[in-house]
């Protein structure tokens, strides 16, 4: 479980996060949702330590992350896998090398063990016969899956996904969402997904934290979000014409 | 001062939480290829012409019956070894390698590749920058040696083909009164310049913020700051080691 307590962050005098608290449970797909610019990605980066908040605590299964020294932090980070918005695949390495990278640096596995592990995770995310291709030679959806394979290639306890559907067509988005949820349940990891995609919210939102203007204004899940009484949240959910039509039929 | 402090912290961070030796070895070899081998042609061309021009211009300025022809080669040798081979080559390398380092790291920064390394628990500064600095400090002295030889050869070609100096006079000129310390001095400068170019360029690239436009800005800034640092170090080393 990951717990955040009273996280606040200011950039150039503008407070982006206001006392955010919440609990993200193991084995669940936890979503942080909200409109663009509400601080979702900043919160995620505070949780993984890429941004240091002015105030607050982040606890990884009770272990203080922000207060940990560099060595402890590095050890805790080795239990983390992250899928970035822009994939963050290494351009100079092929797909196999990209996925194998954490194993090369962080484990003592033999070459054959690493190759087997890479093939297993690539197969798990539905990619075969792409090992020798470069990131520039595969589609956006495939890159996301490679990013996900790299995130889970190590034995992780925590999986973070920053806008995993951005730039993908609806079918690929659905596939990525399903993969994230399946992997979360299979590996029993604590997963946090930052998204503003309503299909993801309805599809995989086992716990949802809704941020508005840097504040945690609502918590629930995909079953309760439709009936939430916050006006701001309702505007967010029913922003698209399709959802507005759907709302009329409800 | 704030930037200088940040640069020193950046350098210090390279030496904490390093990964295993084998991963660095591969990276250093790859960077040696990129910095050394890929710079051979530009260094060869610039140094050959540098030597040729130095010989022709020295001869143009030494028009006196009291000065023997071999002095042209002697002056060319001193200028090439003491100054032109290490310093002009450093400026060329700052333009080629420094900008490439800064833009490469800048692109990795804006495409979240550096964040990916950090999230994995890898010291990205150590992993990405240390091999570049080691490779630059290994390869640049070799490039300077090559530049020195080719400059002297360029001077020989220009001098003998145009009839400024005979082959015998040129060979005598570059041998007479030779002080081996000048070569040591050139190599010391090469190591210092390599460190400055690689570390400053890496620093500029690593802390790129924004998008593609800012990568270009970092790259330009890397070259400008590296060249200024090289020229400043050139003067300080001359004061320290030659006076």
From TrEMBL, chain A:
SUPFAM superfamilies with a match to the protein in the record: P-loop containing nucleoside triphosphate hydrolases (SSF52540)
Domain of life: Bacteria
GO molecular function, one term: ATP binding
Residue span(s) of domain ABC transporter: 2-238
Species classification: Bacteria, Pseudomonadati, Bacteroidota, Cytophagia, Cytophagales
Pfam families from the UniProt entry: ABC_tran
Signal sequence extent: none
Keyword Nucleotide-binding assigned: yes
Record-given protein name: ABC transporter ATP-binding protein
Keywords: ATP-binding, Nucleotide-binding, Transport
InterPro entries reported for this sequence: AAA+_ATPase (IPR003593), ABC_transporter-like_ATP-bd (IPR003439), ABC_transporter-like_CS (IPR017871), P-loop_NTPase (IPR027417)
Organism: Marivirga lumbricoides
Automatic annotation (TrEMBL), chain B:
Keyword terms of this UniProt record: Membrane, Transmembrane, Transmembrane helix
PANTHER family: ABC TRANSPORTER PERMEASE PROTEIN-RELATED, PROTEIN TRIGALACTOSYLDIACYLGLYCEROL 1, CHLOROPLASTIC
Membrane spanning residue stretches: 35-60, 144-166, 178-203
GO CC, any one term: ATP-binding cassette (ABC) transporter complex
Superkingdom of origin: Bacteria
InterPro entries per record: Permease_MalE (IPR030802)
Single GO term (MF): phospholipid transporter activity
Claim: Transmembrane helix is one of the keywords in the record: yes
Coiled coil: none
Pfam families the UniProt entry points to: MlaE
Name listed for the protein in its UniProt record: ABC transporter permease
Organism: Marivirga lumbricoides
């Amino acid at each position: 479980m990951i717990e955040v307590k009273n996280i606040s962050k200011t950039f150039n005098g503008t407070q982006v996060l206001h006392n955010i608290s919440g609990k993200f449970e193991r084995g669940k797909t936890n979503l942080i949702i909200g409109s663009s610019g509400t601080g979702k990605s900043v919160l995620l980066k505070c949780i993984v330590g890429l941004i240091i908040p002015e105030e607050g605590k982040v606890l990884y299964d009770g272990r203080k992350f922000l207060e940990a020294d560099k060595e402890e932090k590095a050890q805790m980070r080795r239990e983390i896998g992250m899928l970035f918005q822009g994939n963050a695949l290494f351009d100079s390495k092929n797909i196999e090398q990209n996925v194998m990278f954490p194993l090369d640096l962080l484990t003592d596995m033999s070459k054959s063990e690493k190759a087997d592990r890479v093939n297993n995770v690539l197969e798990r995310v539905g990619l075969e016969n792409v090992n020798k291709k470069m990131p520039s030679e595969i589609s956006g959806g495939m890159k996301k899956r490679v990013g996900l394979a790299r995130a889970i290639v190590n034995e992780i306890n925590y999986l973070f996904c920053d806008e995993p559907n951005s730039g993908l067509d609806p079918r690929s988005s659905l596939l990525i969402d399903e993969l994230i949820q399946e992997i979360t349940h299979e590996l029993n990891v604590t997963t946090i997904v930052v998204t503003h995609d309503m299909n993801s919210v309805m599809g995989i939102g086992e716990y949802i934290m809704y941020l508005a203007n840097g504040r945690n204004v609502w918590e629930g899940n995909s079953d309760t979000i439709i009936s939430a009484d916050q006006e701001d949240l309702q505007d967010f959910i029913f922003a698209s014409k399709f959802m507005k039509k759907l709302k009329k039929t409800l | 001062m704030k930037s200088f402090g940040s640069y020193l912290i950046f350098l210090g961070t390279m030496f904490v939480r390093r990964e295993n030796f084998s991963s660095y070895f591969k990276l250093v070899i790859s960077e040696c290829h990129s910095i050394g081998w890929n710079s051979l042609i530009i260094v060869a061309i610039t140094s050959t012409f540098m030597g040729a021009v130095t010989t022709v211009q020295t001869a143009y300025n030494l028009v006196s019956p009291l000065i023997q022809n071999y002095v042209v080669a002697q002056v060319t040798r001193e200028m090439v070894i003491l100054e032109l081979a290490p310093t002009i080559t450093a400026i060329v390398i700052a333009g080629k390698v420094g900008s490439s380092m800064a833009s490469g790291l800048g692109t990795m920064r804006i495409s979240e590749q550096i964040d990916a390394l950090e999230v994995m628990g890898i010291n990205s500064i150590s992993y990405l920058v240390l091999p570049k600095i080691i490779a630059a400090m290994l390869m640049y002295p070799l490039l300077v040696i090559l530049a020195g030889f080719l400059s002297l050869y360029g001077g020989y070609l220009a001098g003998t083909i145009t009839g400024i100096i005979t082959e015998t006079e040129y060979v005598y000129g570059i041998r007479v009164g030779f002080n081996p310390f000048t070569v040591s001095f050139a190599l010391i400068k090469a190591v210092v310049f390599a460190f400055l170019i690689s570390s400053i360029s890496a620093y500029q690239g690593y802390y790129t913020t924004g998008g593609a436009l800012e990568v270009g800005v970092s790259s330009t800034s890397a070259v400008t700051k590296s060249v200024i640092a090289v020229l400043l170090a050139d003067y300080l080393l001359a004061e320290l080691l030659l006076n």
